[in-house]
Automatic annotation (TrEMBL):
CDD domains: AdoMet_MTases. The keyword Iron-sulfur does not apply. Residues 45-141 form the Methyltransferase domain. This is Class I SAM-dependent methyltransferase. Coiled coil: none annotated. It holds the Pfam family Methyltransf_25. Keywords: Methyltransferase, Transferase. One of its GO terms (biological process) is methylation. It comes from Trinickia symbiotica. It comes from the Bacteria. SUPFAM superfamilies: S-adenosyl-L-methionine-dependent methyltransferases. The keyword Transferase applies.
Amino acid sequence: MLLKNLRPANDYDRFATETLEPWDMLFVARIRQLAREIPPGALADIGTATAVVPVRLAADPALADWSFIGVDLDPAMLEEGVPRIEALGLSSRIELKVGDALALPFEDGALAMAVSRATLHHLPDKALSLKEMFRVLRPGGIALVHDMRRDAPQALLDRFTRMRAEANYPPTHLEEKVTLDEARALVAEAGVDAFSTVFSPNAGLGAMGFEILLKKPVCA
Ligand SMILES: C[S@@+](CC[C@H](N)C(=O)[O-])C[C@H]1O[C@@H](n2cnc3c(N)ncnc32)[C@H](O)[C@@H]1O
């Protein structure tokens, strides 16, 4: 199956491992920072594709007490990631699950963290996906969503287009992405705005995107 506007799994993996590393590291660093705030538990990466982010997280000694689940709607993406997980000896730390961001395959309160990068823009009901991430958090759990902004500074968008072209990868579909204000509206539509922070850095690579952070109260 090839989802709309997505490349075949092997081509996505090539791009993700060769070109997306600077963004991976921003996302991974943010997850590490947030994970230090709460006791260890299960962390699911929603729309994980070939599980590049869980692999980076599982290799981090600071997260040795965490377990990781990569969730994706497309089994071909997950299958593409399996050989790397096995080669790195991470099979016992990373589980891969076929699942839909709009109906997450977890019980209420099952996760310490739910994270998702560059996936929100693919989803037909973005507010529902935020509700789902919040639902599956345990009390005190944290959800983190990073995605690209349609209203990012033009110079950064141009830089991203150049990087994609150099990697022989087609231009991004900017029309699918949301603006920072639209991200705030989605959080409100999901009914989780009381627990949220939505922001975009004003400089550096991170300014190409926004962050939605949801913190479930300990006494929800
Ligand atoms: C652009 S890729 C991002 C992959 C990875 N998170 C990253 O940052 O490199 C988007 C991923 O979302 C997955 N996806 C799209 N719709 C989905 C859905 N409804 N539920 C779960 N995954 C979905 C796609 O199969 C794809 O692997």
